[in-house]
Amino acid sequence: MDDRMILVTGGAGFIGSNFVLEWIAQGCGPVVNVDKLTYAGNRGNLAALEGDARHVFVQADIGDRATMSDLLQRHRIRAIVNFAAESHVDRSIGSPGVFVQTNVVGTFELLEAARAYWGQLAGTERDAFRFLHVSTDEVYGTLEKNDPAFSETHRYLPNSPYSATKAASDHLVRAYHHTYGLPVLTTNCSNNYGPRHFPEKLIPLVIHNALGGLPLPIYGDGAQVRDWLYVTDHCAAIRRVLEAGVPGETYNIGGWNEKTNLSVVQTLCAVLDRESPRADGRSYAEQITFVKDRPGHDRRYAIDASKIERELGWRPAETFETGIAKTVRWYLDNQAWVRSVTSGAYRNWVAEQYA
Ligand code: NAD
Ligand code: TYD
């Protein structure tokens, strides 16, 4: 336990909220949680921390440098963990501007605030300060079937506005280390899944649609491959990198779990058939529907997570089977949460996207 505060951005979103809840539950110390509360951010994700003095929530934009500087100074922040981002590839295709604004300009403003703050620290406070930037494997582009998995030295070849803006932010973070010496860490993680995942992404969307008797939309032929990691494994990896990662280094994080989209959806249907059978006794798999492919759809992502295992001793604790079972159970037990996030705005998005 370190009683100095860390600043988490985007901590009302999917991964950020899981990270904050675990950080506090494990007694790692207090948190200032900055989130703009876009459509993807939800105060309800943090309901368990209501009234808890170890959690200070601030609704703000990471691009608001003055507010970020003030928070860093006021709370004597020892580390920043930057989750805040626009994160959905499909939305980035229709509206790339907000991705540039938050993922690139927002990260830049946050880096500037961090650089000024860190610059006036001294001694052990200065040595211990960290800026951990949470990024994605999508910056590396797409792989062919038999290509080796992405290592940390793979070329950056982003293909969507989402991944291009994440790549740009990674480059800025890197430059702040090389130019100014800011003690940064970058993590590039594969696809996460688990509790509190917004139902615009494949796994929660399929669970939500299945239970609602709606089509389960599979883009193109469904043979695209993603490398799935249970969200608490990602959070554990971030804690480990924060604790022991070498400033200036990047760490790839993945689950060693490559699956085609079709097999992910079939697995979900099988688990749902068991845990919450359809009233007519038939399989949810009957709801699978192949729809128009995503433009520029990356064929395969796969992470080589051997560096973080070798250097920091991290490995995922969950298999895909245990993680999916926990995820389905969470959604079955938290239908009120699902109802609260599938508002009018969500329904408009779904109507437009799957028209
Ligand atoms: P999310 O969309 O669920 O949450 C993002 C959060 O950031 C939301 O709470 C939102 O309100 C907040 N936010 C957005 N713009 C902001 C701004 N300008 N200022 C402050 N807050 C803002 O995303 P997620 O899936 O939890 O992803 C978190 C991070 O992890 C992102 O940086 C993403 O690129 C990265 N990542 C995600 C995955 C994945 O599979 N979900 C995999 C690898 C990396
Ligand atoms: P997604 O969860 O959006 O994550 P990402 O695009 O960041 O990998 O999508 C995961 C995979 O599932 C991706 O290949 C696109 C596909 N997909 C579908 O087939 N149907 C859907 O309705 C969605 C949302 C995604």
UniProtKB/TrEMBL annotation:
Coiled coil: none annotated. Residues 7-327 form the NAD(P)-binding domain. Its cofactor is NAD(+). Its EC number is 4.2.1.46. CDD domains: dTDP_GD_SDR_e. It catalyses: dTDP-alpha-D-glucose = dTDP-4-dehydro-6-deoxy-alpha-D-glucose + H2O. Keywords: Lyase, NAD. Pfam families: GDP_Man_Dehyd. SUPFAM superfamilies: NAD(P)-binding Rossmann-fold domains. It is an enzyme of class 4 (lyase). The keyword NAD applies. InterPro entries: dTDP_Gluc_deHydtase, NAD(P)-bd_dom, NAD(P)-bd_dom_sf, Sc_DH/Rdtase_CS. The keyword Lyase applies. Gene3D superfamilies: NAD(P)-binding Rossmann-like Domain, UDP-galactose 4-epimerase, domain 1. Belongs to the NAD(P)-dependent epimerase/dehydratase family. dTDP-glucose dehydratase subfamily. PANTHER family: DTDP-D-GLUCOSE 4,6-DEHYDRATASE-RELATED. This is dTDP-glucose 4,6-dehydratase. It comes from Noviherbaspirillum aridicola. The gene is rmlB_2.
